[in-house]
Amino acid sequence: MVLINIEALSTTELQYIAQQEGMNDWDSLERQNLIEALEELYETENGELSTDYNARERITRRRYINTLTDFRGNSEHVSNLPGVVALPSAYAATSIHVMLREPGWAHAYWNISPLVLEKLGDQSSTQLVFHLNVEIVDPSDRHKIESFDIEIGSEDREWNINIPNPRSWYMVRLMCRTSEGDKELCRSQVVTLVSPWWWEQDRTFIDPRTFTLNICPLITKGGTLIDNRTISDWVSALVHGAVEAGR
């Protein structure tokens, strides 16, 4: 949620906020009067004390003036925001992009040109089926290539992908299965995963004090390890290494 400086807003934006907050004379007040009225409104709201959670939440929401960033669950309100225009449902280019979310997860998003979809439909006698092909390369052995497919729906435009090896290169292809076989529509750039520093420090963390010092931030208040596959694999490897070292 973004805290907005009221005085930095345009008069149109101030009028929109005043209208959303239910001020009857929002369209007739001068700019300075609008600012003073809104400040008074939020000061009053923030000064109210209540033990009711919903009431406190409403006060917080008004304090941060999130009508510019939150359209209150109704998509029709978006087009009414100052300077906001609707994005096209599709673009002319067919492309796929991937970005790293964390060491073990990537986010892919793509667009399929309507012309490409129309052409594929004309060429295929069966229903079009799409899937993502994920190719993973081990930098230490470039001949070692692993790949797997992810079935996606025709309306899907994004997907979170688990990358099992945090020390690898990967690329994602957008594929279409037609009556003539699999057809590659586009491919992403090659992305290099960066290993976390602690992933390369296995021997260092075998020391009990060092392990405790660095593992504490990864433990929840309930005493369990945070839900992250990469960290779980790393801890398992450390525990296995400690057992082997103690033999």
Structure characterization notes:
The protein is an alpha+beta fold and 247 residues long. The protein folds into three domains: 6-70; 95-193, Immunoglobulin-like; 208-245, no CATH class. It has helices at residues 11-20, 31-47, 53-63, 114-123, 208-215, 229-246, and strands spanning 95-102, 105-111, 129-138, 141-152, 158-162, 169-178, 181-187, 191-192. The strands form two sheets. Strands 3, 4, 6, 7 and 8 form a five-stranded antiparallel β-sheet that branches. A three-stranded antiparallel β-sheet has the order 1-2-5, with no helix packed on it. It is flat and about 70 Å long. Residues 48-73 have low confidence and may be disordered.
Q: What's the architecture of the largest domain, going by CATH?
A: Sandwich
Strand content: 15-25%
N-to-C SSE string, H for helix and E for strand: HHHEEHEEEEEEHH
Tell me the helix content. 25-40%
| Overall outline | flat
Q: Which structural class do you get from the secondary structure elements? A: alpha+beta
Oligomer: single chain
Residue runs with pLDDT of under 50 for 5 or more positions:
48-73
Mean pLDDT level: 74
Number of domains: 3
CATH superfamily of the largest domain: Immunoglobulins
Protein name: DUF4912 domain-containing protein
